[in-house]
Amino acid sequence: MIAFAVVLLPILVIFLISYLSSKRELERVVLKDLRVHADDRGNDVVRFVELNKQRATDFASDGHIVAGLRAMQAAGRIDDGRLSAYIRNNKMSLDKKIIRVVLIADKKMVASTDPLYRHAEHDGIEAAALGRAGVSVIKNGPSGGPELAFMVSIGGVDAAKKIGVLITFLRLSELERVITRTAWPEYGEAVSEMTQSFETLDIYLVDTEGMLITEAKYIKDGVFKRRIDNGLIDTCREKRERSSGFYADYRGIKVAGASLCMPALGFTLIVEIDSNEALKPILDNRRYAAVSIVITIGLLAALYLYFFRRLIVQITEVTNAAKEVAAGNYSVRLPVRTSDEIGALTRAFGGMADDLQTRQKELKESSVRLLNAQRIAHFGSFEYKPFTNEMTWSEELYRILGVAPGLIVPSHKSLTSFIHIDSRPVAQDAFENACLNGKPYAHTLKVVRLDGAERTVRVQCESDIDGAGAVVKVSGIIHDITEQARLEELQARLTAIIEATPDFVATGDTNGRVLYYNKAARKILGIADNEDVSDIRILDTHPAWAAEKVMNEGLPTAAREGSWSGETAFLSRDKHEIPASQVIIAHKDAEGKIEFYSTVARDITERKRAEREIMEMNAALEGRVAARTKQLLEANKELEAFSYSVAHDLRGPLRIIDGFSHALQEDMEGRLDPVALDHIRRVRGAASRMSQLIDDLLGLSRITIVEMSHDLVNLSAIAGGIAADLKKTGPERNCEFVIEKGLVVTGDVRLLRVAMENLFANAWKFTAKRDGARIEFGSSGTREGRRVYYVKDNGAGFDMKYADKLFGAFQRLHPAAEFEGTGVGLATVARVIKRHGGTVWAEGDVGGGAIFYFTL
């Protein structure tokens, strides 16, 4: 009996170990499946949130909305309904699930697409969404139930540019539709599913406090009413770590569950299955095993006496050794005790263990080499079995797609989801053709990584076909050629630029052989586009003097300093010399050794011709200038002689007329009647005016010929001195002078004083009849890049239609009886300003004064 028990005990132990091992493995598979499913549904939630955040961002960047909000802020008002109508008709129509959009500025609601919630007294309704960028949950929204709020800034995230926020609202039930997959494909296509379906599968979301925010399978109307407490939620809340395991759920029933922490959203995703359903296969096996044990006991009892002593010990050893090998211990070996079948089995087992150990080592080393090679070369690989719909990915393929290895269950559907939408049709057709017909393919396409970055990849695929012609496996490699494609594109652009430039561009080796000519270089040298240039020597394309300059100066300087520039020439096929401005560049490797030379040159034939013409024109111009200068000197001498003649010859008769008239007036004053005396006074006045006119003419002529100096001149100081002198000449006048300080210019101090005296004298004269006269000197802006100065008065003014006569000699706009003068003063001003390279002009109004402007 003891022996019988000894025989049965190993069987029971093996069964127990097998049962526990199978149970643990099944639990592990179930929990892994739940974690993958939680990741999948979590991705659905994140995609749903990102899509709605992007929709809100698109609304917030609408120019009409931004402009409308700025206008309301500037006017200090809320929306009159037009902006809300625009959002409702033009934006909400893009997504029927949005129930309301509001705009908030300065913490006040200024616009809402819901007329019942548009005014300031309803601000509190949206308070739950204020201050939270992204998504927020409102427990009791205006729609009568829980809502989701997506808030984005308007005007930019920078506080200095932010002008307000835009919030879109959806019913919270939309989130439940996402995690239960009743909303697909509205928000996208699911990329993975559980390996099997479960009737008790329960998926729900809770907030950080464990409060339900989506309906649970076995709780009716529990959103924001029922709090869920379990270890998974506590771990997410306290450690922000995901977890899985078996525990009692909210019903008190043992379940298998997995969590996904989503701290950025304030959610925890829970996926649960009743443990009875999850472990049903192992429980069934337990019942079957119990029946098998009973039968085995009966058989063993019948065969015990015959088989026990010979078999049981070796069978037990083989069984234990098999378990060791199954656990990965390939060093287990069994002693051979008999020469029968058990002995042969023991020897075969030892050979098998040796072979497995050797192959496992080789396989591990080969796998490491393959992974390293793929990582270094950016080669990912995949295998697909059409009959079982199984696909495997290499670790490098995960990295190319921007996914952590194992995060996504490999499948053709999930791989296709990473392919750019423009490349999908070609990729799908080629893959289906490989699976159905075994046709290999290779093409380049775009993939979109999990982080949104685009990569360029090269895909090559081949099929394994069995004897019946059926495709049993499709193997492919995916090579990330993003950098290679970028460099090729950049090289193509640079080549296009070099070929399009009209400048001569070429490269050559260190032996003086030409490597490359661009299109312009071939045209300049007369070389055909398809002609081989490898036999052309660089120096043969220059005339002798230019070749010597390049050899002795250009190349040594470029080798020493990196580059050289100078004027050379090229020699065309027809021996025509083309002058050029040339740059030579030496290109060196990391060790400073010259690899090749490049040159850029420009045809300066036209510039050389222009230089010759300019030199000839300069020579001719210098001759003309010398002749004109001589003529001008002679004219100045004649003008000086004329001025002396006027001063000497005209003043003599005038003095005689004035003298005799004065004597006649004094001697005959008592004997002449008043009419005669008036005639004498008129004669004397005319003589005096004639003398003043001669003085003004002489002054005007001197201004034209006097040599100018260029010194710093303080116009403000000159104006102040002139104003003081004028006040002394008319102390009885009530006239205010306003002079801007610090107006300093460069010019001839004598001529500028003459101009200022004439401008102030003109203003003084025409304000003589004005009580409360005002004369002002200052500056006002610029004209043609020069500062503008002015003298302004409130005197008699003038009619603007006569403005063109103001600065002509002897031109007067007022009768001499009303305002004295010769009409030369403003002409003198014009000549002084002209000699200083400036301009002078005036504005006036009859009875409203005048302003005289000038620049220097």
The count of β-strands is 26
Task: Count helical runs.
Answer: 19
Strand content: 15-25%
Shape descriptor reads elongated
CATH class of the largest domain: Alpha Beta
What fold name goes in the CATH topology slot of the largest domain?
Beta-Lactamase
Low confidence ranges: 120-131
Tell me the span between the first and last alpha carbons: 133 Å
Structural class: alpha+beta
CATH A-level architecture of the largest domain: 2-Layer Sandwich
Structural domain count: 7
Overview features:
alpha+beta; 856 residues; Beta-Lactamase; five-stranded antiparallel beta sheet; single chain
Q: Can you characterise this structure?
A:
The model is unreliable at 120-131 (pLDDT under 50). The chain starts with a helix and ends with a strand. It has 7 domains: 2-20 and 295-362, no CATH class; 24-194, 2-Layer Sandwich (Beta-Lactamase), CATH 3.30.450.20; 197-275, 2-Layer Sandwich (Beta-Lactamase), CATH 3.30.450.20; 378-486, PAS domain (Beta-Lactamase); 501-603, PAS domain (Beta-Lactamase), CATH 3.30.450; 609-682; 706-854, Heat Shock Protein 90. α17 packs across α18. It is elongated and about 190 Å long. A hairpin with a 4-residue loop joins β10 (379-385) and β11 (390-393). A 5-stranded antiparallel β-sheet has the order 2-1-5-4-3. Strands 11-10-14-13-12 form a 5-stranded antiparallel β-sheet, with helices on both faces. With 856 residues, it is an alpha+beta fold. The chain contains 19 helices and 26 strands.
